[in-house]
């Protein structure tokens, strides 16, 4: 419950700040907008450097594409996100991922009279692109070892359901879906074997490739300008499974702050916090900060 209150408080503050923005006149028909960003971080030390440190290089690729439709009292918003990052330290045998996310969000709404409320139907799909590994150390040789733990579509999450949406604009909305179906897809190879225990791999039972859940979903989106040339984008998704431990609310919050230098260069700060007790018993936190090359279309 504390996690749920914290998430609502965090997004609530953003929501209230965004609500102060003047509503822009919305265009009828299709509107499309995309952005590609490449972030780089690098550190280098020579052999004589006595202050400590390891030479490393890191990169992050971001792709964000929105294609939205508006016709009188009908609205349909779609967002495709791709976020992939990798880092390599000189002393490490393997490169390691810092982020790997492929996500598609779609929400359609039918306006309730002359108000900001809509009858809604939403769909969310999320997975990763490449293999993920758990790293360890060989007790005899001392070398780094890695074991494949995840892959493309393993896991993959599909959520969908009807609800009610409060929408101020394309840049500010909150969707409530109390009857949401969720399916978790995995590669059956990860749930097979005599030592596998039901639920150990993202909640999926032994010899199964899918887990079905039914619960409530809350999702929100807010994008606004903090000051000139500084834009903050926020996405939050909450989910509670009625069928098992409904008090354990899954949380997925992402903040992307872009500080524009010129039309092609910016400094980006990405922060993400995830809580899913079927994956890890605790919060997963990541933060990426770097100089970026941006291309808008």
**Head-to-tail CA distance between termini:** 41 Å
Total number of distinct structural domains: 1
What's the CATH topology label?
A: Outer membrane phospholipase (ompla), Chain C
Rg, please?
Answer: 21 Å
Number of helices: 1
**What fraction of the residues are assigned to beta strands by DSSP?**
over 45%
Work out the number of β strands.
14
Q: Sheet bearing the most strands, described? A: 12 strands, antiparallel, barrel
Q: SS-based structural class?
A: mainly beta
Overall shape: flat
- What is the CATH class designation? Mainly Beta
Going by CATH, the architecture would be Beta Barrel
Regions with little confidence, pLDDT below 50 for 5+ residues: 4-9, 14-24
Could you estimate the helical fraction of the residues in percent? Answer: under 10%
Overview in brief:
By secondary structure, the chain is mainly beta. It is built from 1 helix and 14 strands, in the order αββββββββββββββ.
Brief descriptors of the model:
Outer membrane phospholipase (ompla), Chain C, single chain, mainly beta, 12-stranded antiparallel barrel, 6% helix, two-stranded antiparallel sheet
What does this structure look like?
- The chain has one helix spanning 2-19, and strands spanning 29-43, 56-71, 74-89, 96-111, 117-127, 132-137, 144-150, 156-169, 172-185, 210-227, 230-241, 250-260, 265-275, 283-296.
- It is mainly beta.
- It has a single domain (2-296), classed as Outer membrane phospholipase (ompla), Chain C (Beta Barrel), CATH 2.40.230.
- The chain has a twelve-stranded antiparallel beta barrel. A two-stranded antiparallel ribbon has the order 6-7.
- The longest helix is centred in the first third of the chain and has 18 residues, at 2-19.
- Residues 4-9 and 14-24 have low confidence and may be disordered.
